[in-house]
Amino acid sequence: MKHIANTLLGTAFLVLTSSASAGGEVRLKPHESKGWMNAIGRVGGYYSMISSEYPQVSTTSPTPTIETGKVSRSAIGFDLDLMGFWDATRFDTLLGAEMKLQLALIKGDEIQRNGTVAADTNKLFFRWDAAFDYGLLHFGTAKGVRGRLGGGAGFGADYDSGRFGTTGGRVYPLLLARAHLFLTEDFGGHLAYHYVPTTTNDAKIREHRFELAGSISSLQAGVRYVLTRIYAGDTPYETKEGSVFVAYAF
After folding, report:
1. 222 to each of 105, 107, 165, how far by Cα in Å?
2. CA-to-CA dists, residue 71 to 53, 135, 159, 240, angstroms
3. Does the model's pTM come out above 0.90?
């Protein structure tokens, strides 16, 4: 697994690595090339609960009106994250990149439509994100405490046939911020935020993704929360997703 991850990152970074290091040798310390502080990637599984709103035409009103329908779903999925840095600038900041792949099966629990509840069918979910990372601040102490604060920008694509505003798939720009802190070689944590300002499906969409996790040796576990607002006219429709996950860092 580690050989595969190194091969993928090496291929993706080949051109950028060559240009970044053309003026001199790479100035990274051994541990600084690893995006997850002590690992270059992680693979794991997650479970999500999802609540979505969408516009619907009322059939109970004498005149057609737009009401808010709701659907509740759950999901079980797999994700793979790769992240690494290949060079340090003259300002002692880090240059890197990351990639995320998610696959999930979403079970339609119930749809509330015009005062009735109906069963939904299972849906498939797919997401692929890629971004360049910039380590703005990083440090290490003699006692082994290490940390990094940075951000980045990139793009992504996903497909969720069961959610209002994303049916048929979408492509989007992506902004991110992330903080890592390792108190020892085996104990640490991180906080991440990803922001989607628009998509090809709907220009009036805002999506906020949060992740908080802790790690003990190669085991990581944490929680995620995603808030999506899609505007139909001036009315926002929200999708809220809460997840728990476990992962193995390699």
Report:
1. 20, 22, 28
2. 7, 40, 17, 11
3. no
**Residue 234 per-residue DSSP state:** T
The total of other beta-carbon atoms located within 10 Å of residue 177's CB is 14
Identify the DSSP state of 18. Answer: H
pLDDT in 10s for each residue of the chain, 250 residues:
555 445 444 544 443 443 444 444 557 776 788 888 788 999 999 999 998 887 766 655 566 566 677 788 899 999 999 999 999 898 889 999 999 999 999 887 666 655 566 666 788 899 999 999 999 999 888 888 999 999 999 999 999 876 655 666 899 999 999 999 999 888 999 999 999 999 988 778 899 999 999 999 999 999 999 999 888 777 788 899 999 999 999 9
For residue 246, what are the CA distances in angstroms to 34, 47, 104, 113? 19, 9, 15, 35
Nearest CA among 223, 221, 228 for reference residue 242: 223
DSSP 116-155: EEEPPPPEEEEEEEEEEEEEEEEEE-TTS-EEEEEEEEEE
d(CA 115, CA 237) in angstroms, rounded, equals: 18
Residue 250: what residue type?
F
Average confidence score pLDDT of the chain: 83
> Residues near 179 by Cβ (< 8 Å), separated by ≥ 6?
147, 148, 149, 190, 191, 192
Q: Taking a C-beta distance cutoff of 8 angstroms, is the pair 213, 44 a contact?
A: no
Buried b (16+ CB within 10 A) or exposed e, 69-101: bebebebebebbbbbbbbbbeeeeebbbbbbbe
